[in-house]
## 1
Amino acid sequence: MNNNGTGRAALADSAAADLDPARLRDVFGTFATGVVAVTAFDDGRPTGLAANSFTSVSLDPPLVSFCAALTSSTWPRIRGARRLAVNVLAANQREVCERFAAKGGDKAAGLDWFSSPGGAPLVAGSLTWLECSVEHEYPAGDHLVVIARVRQAGGPFAGSPLLFFRSQYGRWAPAPG
Ligand SMILES: Cc1cc2nc3c(=O)[nH]c(=O)nc-3n(C[C@H](O)[C@H](O)[C@H](O)COP(=O)(O)O)c2cc1C
């Protein structure tokens, strides 16, 4: 499918607008992603943040990345832990995502979790979990790009992913054709 004709005119119009943060958020939001919960123990209690900036980086050595906002109050707590976990959220874990996206409060209250072998909190029902240590943190604008080394992994388990697209949650379906 191409996007010529009216699509080209729309493209020219939209390119004239400035890159203000609200528009950029909408533009970035056209890239559909999964969602992870990045978790760690903070004083023995699970905490974490929801992130859709997660991506796999390297198989050898095993590295992943995600971006942490400079405004995050939870990231400094996670960074201080020896191990963190990346929990890939399933389609039925929207509530889990929302609790980790909330600011403040006890994010683990009522959460079904268990500990990874190396000591990071794992969210029950996730599609996979990765137990990681922080390898690098690179400042990048209003975020930090975190490179984490995968120490252990669990899964993949059955289920379909929680997806995020244009600020809305959805679920995966095979493309037609
Ligand atoms: C779908 C979704 C994706 C998000 N992705 C990120 C992300 O990649 N990086 C980030 O720092 N915050 C992300 N957030 C925001 C954090 O999950 C969360 O709101 C914030 O960390 C909570 O504030 P706190 O860190 O001060 O506790 C995302 C939120 C949602 C709902």
## 2
Amino acid sequence: MPHLIDTAPTDWAYLSEGGATIVFTYTGAPNPVFDGTVLRLRKGPLELDGDSRLHDRVLSSRTKVFASDEDLAAYYGLSPPPPPRPHSPEDPTVEFQRECIARLIPPAHLPNLAYLDATGPTTHVWLETLAAQCEPHRPPERRRTDGIEIAEPTSVLATDLVGGEGIAVEIKPKWGFLPSPMYLSDHTRAVKTRTCRFCMHAHLKATKGETVPRGYCPLDLYSGDESRVKQALSGLWDAWVESDGIVNSFRVFVRGKKIRPAEKSTIVGIANDLADPKEALISALLPVLMTTPVLRTLAHLQRTLDPLDIEGLAALHAQADAPLGPEPTLDEYTAFVSAYLSGGASPADLRYHVLAYLLSATFKDCSVIVRVPDGTATIIDLDAKSVERVRKWHELDWEIACAYALVPEGERKMCVDVVGQ
Ligand SMILES: [Zn+2]
């Protein structure tokens, strides 16, 4: 296994980041292992980093007044220092993709993933150096909340899908279906079966002052109807421009570099000869999205892995009067995928539906990278979700639906799902 320190931190240029990971492009000297790759590192919350640094400072200046680290921490209003955890050089990202995801999505539409060894005494300094180096390039709102996970790093080497001479667009398509009315409560049924989850969530976010892609409905993007797909891309573009590139649902990379809306003229002349950047990009993306199977596959997986809706899952959970269970192991996921592919399980099997919902969430939260003029579409960020989030998703779902129920009926968005019509 290649090691992080086979390269220098300066060989990696900041590319972009999401909620859980931060990505760098290899820009070092030609090297058959690293050429054409990106480095994907796990992020950790800043509070913890700050806390542990504070712990170190406070604990190193301790006096005899405090009987233990815990007493000292309590005095300073800190949570007790975490016990040392066994070093875990790997999370199951690579195995999860190989054993589960690749059985559900044709591998031609997935990036190659491989671990990069991040163990050893010098890794810490290497990562600290990279973290300091990339800080000025990160969005301010991200810098305030998290950073590269240094204590327990996870480093994955992946295919660089945005480099090269063309244009790459990263789209986060989100939920591609309306729930079946069968398991919805009387309070939410009328709302949730007409307006899609993304559009309702966008409304809630907008009421909280966030910039959201108002003109974008995922059901348009997934519809397979050319004019609706075009409408979806137009909505994503407009949100990208209006938010000055802040929205996470649309990112544009030209010749390997993420561009801001102010640099949109660099799009012109690469994929076609249209003079308007928006027209040029949408015209180039449209034929790829109309022919690739990735959107259809994603929507099908999301829908069939979430047949109950979170409300139905919560009802099943209450009925079973049993815990949701521990985090699924890789073996459990593998067995689940076999059961799913062979036609599912009994409707009352709580654990089956927990795993199905988690996997559905993975497909609701991934991104698609479309390259033009190459004409490829690849799905990225297919990470396993934690079972601990199920309860929060249920609360959020309730909040979203209740907020939308307050919108007068005549003003509610009607989202059209092609399946079930
Ligand atoms: Zn919608």
